[in-house]
Amino acid sequence: MQGTTLINPGRQIDSLQSPRFSQVTTFARLAHTRRLENVRALFLGVPFDDGTTFRPGARFGPRAVREASRLLRRYNPIVETKPFEELSMVDYGDVDVVPGYIEETYARIVNTLEPILEAGIFPIACGGDHSISLGILRAASKKYGKLSLIHYDAHSDCGDIYFGKKYGHGTPFRRALEENLIDPAHSIHVGLRGSTYDESELSGLSDMGFSVISMHEYARIGHTETIKRIREKVVGPAYISLDIDGVDPAYAPGTGMPEAGGFTSREMLDLVRGLEGLPFVGFDLVEVSPLYDVAEITAVLASNLIYEFCSIVAKAGRDEII
């Protein structure tokens, strides 16, 4: 019976039969497989952090998030769905990244995702630093064309050149814009805060065509208006990228670029739930660095944010939105 559970897409190991602290670790104790038959969504680790410019360690993010996800249960009472079962979800394992070589890693991300996307399967990626988003967007854009981007983060990640190099965790969305992977007129950055190098960093986002809701503005307009603006902005296939440093370090200390004054855990969970019904084609959660975590609180939050996203995708699929 145990073997059957492990190979059944969408089914978790029963924690009333096999304790949560036992068995090989996968996301939410789902089956680990690379077979795509009867699978609608999958968890994919991208353990690469050579794009980071400050504190490293996000390469261990997928492992930490998987471990913290052992407490996730079948039913989400807020969204009213059993996400893993409705999505026939599995843990696909990790992209075999190339440590120290970002462009080669991008190629491997694209090569890994292409058959997944062609099969109509929804990828839920876990980094890794934020540089990995560019590889995922390249693959998704091949399948769906230009994407609307919803980006939750303390930083815009629209920088240009760092240390003479084009690619890093501070540049993925400028590169995505240059490569025509995203449509800035239907994309939005939410939660930006902290000091900048100069006054042009935020004004430059408007020049690129992006919309922005800074953390300062969120505090003024509130959750309901923020979700309203996001939903009004998104048109066509949409992609969400969630940097865990969008959350205040009091709630998510395990990250490489902490910024004071961010979202609470509850606010970020609500910001994901509020996107229910939008036409998503992909998702990533990045920058969990367990080396700086405390009692796994960052990894626990990250696993729950992924769970909430799986839930809104499952609910949308039920209504044939995606």
Proportion of strand residues: 5-15%
CATH topology: Arginase, Chain A
Average pLDDT over all residues:
93
The CATH class turns out to be Alpha Beta
CATH-assigned homologous superfamily: Ureohydrolase domain
CATH architecture: 3-Layer(aba) Sandwich
Terminal CA distance: 34 Å
The outline comes out as globular
**Class derived from helix and strand content:** alpha/beta
Radius of gyration: 18 Å
Please tell me the total number of domains: 1
Which sheet architecture does the biggest sheet show? 8 strands, parallel
Helix content: 25-40%
Strand order of the largest sheet: 2-1-3-8-7-4-5-6
Order of helices and strands: HEHHEHEHEHEHEHEHEH
| Tally of contiguous helical segments | 10
Low-confidence stretches: 1-6
Count the strands? 8
Explain this structure to me?
It is a single chain. This protein has 322 residues and is α/β, with parallel strands linked by helices. The protein has one domain: Ureohydrolase domain (Arginase, Chain A, 3-Layer(aba) Sandwich), CATH 3.40.800.10. 35% of the residues lie in helices and 14% in strands. The chain contains ten helices and eight strands. It has helices at residues 2-6, 61-68, 83-86, 102-118, 132-144, 172-178, 200-208, 215-233, 265-273, 297-318, and strands spanning 41-46, 90-94, 122-127, 148-152, 188-192, 211-214, 238-243, 280-286. The chain has an eight-stranded parallel beta sheet with strand order 2-1-3-8-7-4-5-6, with helices on both faces. The longest helix is centred in the last third of the chain and has 22 residues, at 297-318. The two termini are 34 Å apart. The model is unreliable at 1-6 (pLDDT under 50).
